[in-house]
Amino acid sequence: MKKFFIIVIFVGLLFVTIVFGFKKYGLYVMSNKINTIVLSKEGNDFKRKLLPKAETGFATPEDGKDYRIFNHNQAWFEQQITEGRVERWTQRTSETYYIGKGSSAKAMTHPITLNAYFLKNTTETNKTVIIAHGFGLSGDKYGAWGKMYYDLGYNVLLPDARAHGKSEGNYISFGLQEKDDYTNKQGWIEQVIEKIGPDSEIYLHGGSMGAATMMMVAGEAVPANVKLLIEDCGYADLNIPFRHLKGTILSKLEGQNGAYKFKRNLAGLNLNVPIDEQDINYLFDRFLHVFNERYELAENDRDVLASVSAVQAMNTTALPVLFIHGQSDALVPFKETTETLINSKQSNRNNARYEEYFPANANHGAAIKVDYETYKSKIQAFIAHHTQLIGEQQ
């Protein structure tokens, strides 16, 4: 009998050891899956499932009363592509990231080709709006914004960010490297000046990740042709959206009844392994470590999110900025984000002019669907006012 109990205890300990080892392995596999979803082009299909429909090129009645206008404009732009009225521009650049850590890290640089959609207005104009899309999407999915600017009389350029759409590249850096695709010598800003003319007036517009990217662009030394920036629901830095994204992704990975679990088959046994808060933090820390190591951003992994910062750029920009943010935004929360960005005016060394439009009932990326005419008129008035001021100063 004693021998039997010893065997039972041994088998039990062995089983517990296997289960805990299995859990550790499962968490490691899950962390790799999360890193693929968030940081690479490979995860773009899954990303679109995480995003509010408001930002994916298709709107529903829940997005606002003007969702039909949005869908019509998006379909119109896609039809222009189908009928060959939209030019395809390309940019040759490179993707650089690091493998390894510290002094042993090896820089990997690969040439990549980026894609953009250009729609020339039928009315001759030297004014072009460059629109940067959001996380996991592509330039053609921002066709409704393109149609709005086209109707206002402007040319429109909608790039696919690196590792998005038809652009090459393996990894997403949330504006860190993407900003260079606008400001380098072969970048989208220089291409507009070269192809449209040296007297080009360029207006920057971005949504979500594209808004943060454009804010970072505005903090660089851009040509005088770039006149202003319209940012729609961008993040001040990565801390806020990533806290939300962490919970969203984990809830999609087989979450049940508010508890995170993963199910796997082990030696014929169906295991339902609970994941506690400590395990969630492990997954998030692994993500931060991979991102930090890839771009050598900071000594402390948790400092990485603040180092990809739009608010730092807002401290230096000389461009007028229109901040648009829906007060019902659940992905990039309104209050904390807008307070940080608007307060940057106090430390802006160039006394940049800021304006605000904060529609009450708009979710992430949905301001254009809540009240289309107001959205359009706010932007039109902002451009008219500040281009007139710029003209008077020249």
Automatic annotation (TrEMBL):
InterPro entries referenced in this protein's UniProt entry, alphabetically: AB_hydrolase_1, AB_hydrolase_fold, DNA-binding_regulatory, Hydrolase_4
Residues annotated as domain Serine aminopeptidase S33: 124-356
SUPFAM superfamilies documented for this protein: alpha/beta-Hydrolases (SSF53474)
Short name of one Pfam family: Hydrolase_4
Name under which the protein is recorded: Serine aminopeptidase S33 domain-containing protein
Organism listed in the record: Paenibacillus aquistagni
